[in-house]
Design brief:
Number of strands: 22
Shape: globular
Mean pLDDT: 92
Number of helices: 13
Largest sheet: 7 strands, parallel
Radius of gyration: 23 Å
Helix content: 25-40%
Strand content: 25-35%
Low-confidence stretches: 235-241
Length: 461
Amino acid sequence: MTLIIAGERSGVGKTTITLGILSYLKKYYSNIQSFKVGPDYIDPMFHQYVTGKPCYNLDSILTSESYIKTCYQQHIQTANYGLIEGVMGLFDGIPDGENVPIASTAQIALILDLPVILVLDCSRLSGSIAAIAMGFKNFNPNIKLEGLVLNKVGSDRHLELLKAFLAPLNIPIIGTIKRQENIVIPDRHLGLIPTNELPEMDLFIQELAELAENWFDWEQLLPLLKNTNKVSPEKPAPTVWVKNTYQRIRIAIAKDAAFNFYYADNLEILQQLGAELIEWSPLKDNQLPQEIKGLYFGGGFPEVFAQKLSENQVVLKAVKTAILSGIPTYAECGGLMYLCEKIIDFENNAWSMLGILPTTAVMGKRLKLGYYQAKVLKNTPLLSEGEIITGHEFHRSELRENPSHPLYEMQRFLSSQTNASVLEGWGNYPNVHGSYLHLHWGNRIDIPTRFVKSCREWNVI
C-alpha cells in the first residue's frame, strides 16, 4: 500500500508534511519510494534529497492512465514504504463533468486505488473544520479518505475544539502540527528554492525527522505507508521497452543551479535508448564534455544566474560552435532562454547568452502556467511536422521577438476559446529544438527515440 498526501488547497503545508514523513522513514527505515502528482520539478528534488532515490511524476495529461499505473507499479514493487505528494487541493484540476477533475490528486487516487490523508489548515477555524472535512469526505465517496492531518493548530485548547467538532465524522486524526513559524522552506518566483541552493538542507531534514516523530500517530500512519503487496508490473514499463543493441552515445545534460528541471523518467528513458548522460555545468565548467553527440538543456533558473552564465565566455563560445556545427540540441524553457541573445533579469540588467536565437528573454511579473496542446509545424530532432503533443508551461519570462520559424501552434488544453491559438517555439536551425513547452516522454517513447537517433547520426564536420 502507498499513501497519498492531499491538501484542502494549495499552500496548506503538504510539502513540509510530506518531507517530514519521508525524513522520519529515512531515519528509522529503508528503501522508500516517493511520487509527485502533477508536472512539478522542484518538490521531487526535495523528495530525492531525503530518500536518495528519484521521485517520479504522476500526471494524466502529460502521460496517460496506463502509464501512471505502469510507472507506479514499476517503481513501488521493490520498495518497503511509499508516499505520493498531491498537487494543489484534493479535487483541484480540470473539470470533466464528474467529481474527478482531470489531473487532480483525486484522479490519481482513483486510478491507483490508494488511500488519502487530507491535510487541513486549522488556523482561524474551529467548528467550520468539520464542515470542510465532511465536504471532502462526501464530495466523492469513492475516495478512500483514511485520515486527517491538522496543520497550524494554535494551542491545546484549539486542538480540543477541533477534535470535538470532528468526532462525529469518524475520520481518524493521523497527525497534529502546531504553528511552527521556524519551519519554512525558502521560495522565490517559481516556487521553492531548489535543494542545491540550500546549504543547510541536512540540518533541516534532521530537524524535520525529529519533529515528525511527535507530529503523527505512527501506529496508524505506518501501516498505510508500508508496501505489503510487492507485485510485478502488469506489463513492462516504457522505460524498459528498449533493448539497445548500439554502442552507447554521449549526450551532455546541463545540470547545475541554473538548469535542473528534468523528469526522472525522461533521463532514464534516454539511458534505456542507449544514451550515456554526461552531466556538466554551464555555470562552472570551462569546456563542453568530450565526444558528445547531443545537447540537452532543461529548465531551471538561468535568470537568477544570468551574470555567471554570461561571464563564462569560454563555454558560451564552445556551446555556440557546437550548435552551429549541427549537434542535435534540445532546449526547454530555461534552456530556451540560454539560446537567446540576452536575458534581462528582474532588475532590468541585460546579460549576453548564446545568441543562437535572434530574440531576448525578459523577466516579468506575469506567470504563464498551464497545460497546452500543440501542433508541430516543422521537423526538429525530437518531433515531426504535423503531429500533436501535450506539454506544460511554467515561466515568468517572455521573448521580446516572436519566433521567425515557430515550432508549434498551441492552444490551452481543453480550451473552448476560438481563435486562441498562439505560435511558440524556435526552430531556426534544423538541429535545434527550443521551446517553453515542457514535455514528459513517458507515454511518447517515439520522442526520445527520435532524439537519440538524431544524435547517433550526427557527425562532426
